[in-house]
Amino acid sequence: NGNGRLTVLDSSGEVIADLDSSRGGFDELYIGKVNSPSVLNVNKETKNYYIDPVNGNDENIGDTWARPLKTVQSAIDRTPKYNEGFITIYLHADNARNFYEDIKIRGFTGPGGITIDGQLRVNTLSGSVTISGVSNMVTLRNFTVNSTTGKGIEVYRTPYAYCQYVNVYGQGSGRGFYAEGGTNLYLNNCQ
Fold first, then answer.
1. Confidence class of residue 33 from pLDDT cuts 50, 70 and 90?
2. Would you call 140 exposed, middle or buried from its count of C-beta atoms within 10 A (0-12, 13-18, 19+)?
3. Rounded-to-integer distance, Cα 3 and Cα 99, Å
4. Residue 163: in which H helix or E strand, if any?
C-alpha cells in the first residue's frame, strides 16, 4: 500500500508475510530453491547423467538413456558449485566412439565427487579435459583423449584427481597428463 507496508495473505486471508518500513524484514522466510549468481547452490544428492553424442540433446534432463544429454559439459554445468553428492557422467558405450569437446571442470567445492565414465577405452574424446580449483574428488575413467591442442588432461589446484584406464594421445610436443599447483593426480593403468 502507500504507507510503506507489504502484507501477503494466504488463500484463507491469513497473514503469511508482513514487511513494513519500520521492521525491514520478515520474522520467518522459506525459499525452496534460489537461482541467482550471488547465491551458492548446494547439491547433496547422488546423480547419474547419461551422454549420447549422437542422439542426445542438451535440453534433455539427462537422467536416463531415453533422455540423454549431448555433451559432458552440459552435465558439469548442471551441477551446483558446492557439491556434497556424487555425480557420475556415463558416456554411451557405442555412440561415443568419437566425440568432440573441451571439458572444463572448475571451481567445485565440498566433500562430494565427480566421475566421468567412458565405459570403454575405445570411446574417444577429441579435445581436452581441464580440471581447476576443485576440492571434490574427480575421477576420469575408461576412455581415450585425442588431444587436438597438444593438451590432453590438465589439472590445477585440485588435491584429488584420479585417472583410471585413460589413454591420452596428442599432436605435437604438448602435454598428455599435466598437474600443477598443489595437485595430486593419481594415474592407474593409463597411457
1. confident
2. buried
3. 61
4. strand 161-169
